[in-house]
Amino acid sequence: MNISKHEQRVLHELALGGAIHFERRENGKIHSVTCYTREGHILGECTLDLFHRLHRRGFLQSRNGRPYRASRLGITSVRAQLNQR
Fold this sequence. Notes:
UPF0386 protein, three-stranded antiparallel sheet, globular, YjhX_toxin, 85 residues, 32% helix, alpha+beta
């Protein structure tokens, strides 16, 4: 599957234990997202458009209204990368 560089960065952080927190409007649609790493830092590359692309492809999942995390497909689709510290 073709995954862009920004999608890979976000999926890699989610595979390491990060999460995407979201806010919904009154009509139930998501209008803002914030991607947190497992250390609690905010990943600025995660935009609403990028979130929708990843969700549409099945790389993200949310259970019982919790923050979105990488699905099994998302974890296996991302290339292995060294964590840059």
